[in-house]
Amino acid sequence: xxxxxxxxxxxxxxxxxDDGSEFENDxxxxxxxxxxxxxxxxxxxxxGDLSDVVIEVRDAGNxxxxxxxxxxxxxxxxxx
Length: 80
Hints:
Strand content: 35-45%
Order of helices and strands: EEEHEE
Number of strands: 5
């Protein structure tokens, strides 16, 4: 098992993960980050916040593994 860190961008603020979580490999960490962006996005939408959710994944050696971004775009049609 390897330790991975999920740093979350919240607007201009970066919430650095100092604890990390253990995963089997990079792929498992990426999948977990994707699930986390979904959960964070659902919570934000419930508050009316449609901003992007961005998580940067890094490993114990501080190597950048990936960036996962989830975004919501709503296009409303004008009423006629």
